Amino acid sequence: MAVAVMLGPRGALSSLLPRNELESRIVTQVRLPRVTLGFLAGAALATAGMAFQALFRNALATPYTLGVSSGASLGAALYVYSGITGSVAGIPGHAFAALAGAAGAIALVYVIAYAAVGFS
After folding, report:
1. Both 52 and 70 in a single domain?
2. At what angle do helices 68-82 and 93-115 cross, to 10 degrees?
3. Of 8, 27, 57, the domain-final residue
4. What's the mean pLDDT when you consider all of the chain?
5. What is the rounded CA–CA span in Å between residue 19 and residue 6?
6. How far is CA 67 from CA 11, 34, 63, 107, in A?
7. pLDDT of residue 104
């Protein structure tokens, strides 16, 4: 993998440093929050995957095999179909509907697995 380093009058990587107030505001108010949110989202997804695998004691358990993604899609589709609109703290209502659908799907899978004889 080749890496290019831009050299400028202020030394190596000087092109990455903000040159004026506008660039500084772009970096601190736009780019850094997005990068931080990306890291937090990745950590949350990794934690959710670990929770699935620990809950079902199966290293291959994923949201797709368990139907959680389909449940989330169903919840969001029902929300959109119903014509309800709204948001809470800037989070759109279809996100909450998708969360409810995913929770309902995982609860259904867990109840079926618990009720069936011979399944752990």
Report:
1. no
2. 140
3. 57
4. 82
5. 15
6. 53, 30, 6, 11
7. 95
Q: Token pair of 114, please? A: 């618990």
| Whether the predicted pLDDT of 1 surpasses 70 | no
Residues 31-89 pLDDT 10s:
889 999 999 999 998 998 888 888 778 888 887 888 889 999 999 999 999 988 888 88
Domain encompassing residue 34: 19-57
73 and 118 share one domain: yes
